[in-house]
Amino acid sequence: MRTRFFLTTLAVIGSLLGSVPASADGPYIVSARIKDIASLQAGRDNQLIGYGLVVGLQGTGDSLRSSPFTDQSMKAMLQNLGISTQGSQSNAKNVAAVMVTANLPPFASPGSRIDVTTSSLGDATSLRGGTLVMTSLSGADGQIYAVAQGALVVSGFSAQGQAATLTEGVTTAARVPNGAIIERELPSKFKDSVNLVLQLRNPDFSTAVRVSDIVNSFAARRYGGPIAEPRDSQEVVIEKPKSADLTRLMAEIENLVVETDTPAKVVVNERTGTIVIGADVKISRVAVSYGTLTVQVTETPQVIQPEPFSRGETAVQPQTDIMAMKNGGQVALLNGPDLRTLVAGLNSIGVKPDGIIAILQGIKSAGALQAELVLQ
Known about the structure:
By secondary structure, this protein is of the alpha+beta class. It has 3 domains: about 30-40 and about 190-260, Alpha-Beta Plaits; about 45-180, no CATH class; about 265-375, no CATH class. The protein has helices at about 1-15, 35, 70-80, 205-220, 245-255, 340-350, 355-365; strands at about 20, 30-35, 40, 45-55, 95-105, 115-120, 130-140, 145-150, 155-160, 165-170, 175-180, 195-200, 230, 235-240, 255-260, 265-270, 275, 280-300, 300-305, 315, 320-335, 370, 370-375. The strands form 7 sheets. The chain has a 6-stranded antiparallel β-barrel with strand order 4-5-6-11-8-7. A 4-stranded antiparallel beta sheet has the order 3-12-14-13. α1 runs antiparallel to α6. Mean pLDDT is about 80; it is low at about 1-25. Pfam families: FlgI. It comes from Neorhizobium galegae bv. orientalis str. HAMBI 540.
């Protein structure tokens, strides 16, 4: 019953997301805005990284002997603040060395704030209650683009006693919401571009051609000629008309509605038992039989006592019971010209998700699955 509910839910996912079937048995067609299926090549994120210290921990920081880089960093920070640390040695565990990472959003301007993530480098057990000291964040070019500082937010917690320890989540990683201030803007500006390059999030030749056609249809009415050309399955190049403003042009193009197309795929995860079946997946006519053999071995040893006043010894006599059970084995005929028929055919076998995964792999090996099988 749980398997039937799971697969039936897959069949209605398309309708919940706004899919509209072209016909009773035809493929599902999804209409979406260009801004939802593509991103601007010039508008990508940039990764930032930095090394810093977290202070104010309640004895859960790095051991300075086990993490000498934490001790060196703390002494260097104090010397920069004008405090001499020569000849001194600290055994406090309220400081931890961390790596600080962040994503610099496109077109970010100096003065705006972004979130940062901190991860412990040493043997600290928890970052809860700590504060990140001023840390510079650099890009791949070595330039400093942001400076981070602030109180850490840790989602997990850890409690420890003499005989037991309870840990939930990760306590050695934390976030600082709006913890970094952007100090430098990116070298390139949006309006310096001579054209727009749209990158499809799900590369597909059909979708790329449809995006180009929709943009050209709009440009013919607005600017009197085509401006878009699909470069491959992922990129669509849009040339800027001489009389157009690039920002306004992008705002008009990103709201155009396109009918998207995706290849037929079946994604299975054997670890979690998750099965995701695409709307266009089809199965040729095939017969499937699935059965499982369960062998149960039970050990019930018996203790044998010697008779009274005898010189015998107490002995243990082993006793083993073996029982074999075979479930399933029925033959089902599958013919999936559409998603609904395919789900109904798999439900008729009445097996669990792990069994359905094995069946789909067998159907793919037999050449009857007209889709790509992705194993995770």
